[in-house]
Amino acid sequence: QVQLVESGGGSVQAGGSLRLSCTPSGYTFSNCMGWFRQAPGKEREVVAGIDLIGYRRYADFVEGRFTISLDDAKNILELQMNSLKPEDTAMYYCAAARAPCYTLPASYNMNYWGKGTAVTISS
Known about the structure:
Blueprint: E1 3-7, E2 10-13, E3 18-25, E4 32-38, E5 45-51, E6 56-58, E7 66-71, E8 76-81, E9 90-97, E10 112-113, E11 117-122
């Protein structure tokens, strides 16, 4: 059974940084991985994706503040978030797809999901 476990969320002030990690069990990250988020009362949205060859894609609102990465040796997906804003407050989820992704991944493409880690940014 595949499980994805996120960690690294927390509460920081605007302008601060957080580093999220996603550790799988029963699965090796391969074709398509991504970070998504859902703020209270809003739809889930993609934040960033990384594909098989390490190509990274970001949602427009990231504006160069976040970096998605995959540690192949440790099989850990990470999201470094800098210059955080109050509007970044959300539950952040890591997800993986068995099929390759050639664009920013969409929720419906992903086969496996973590339970999320909460990020709260205060002004």
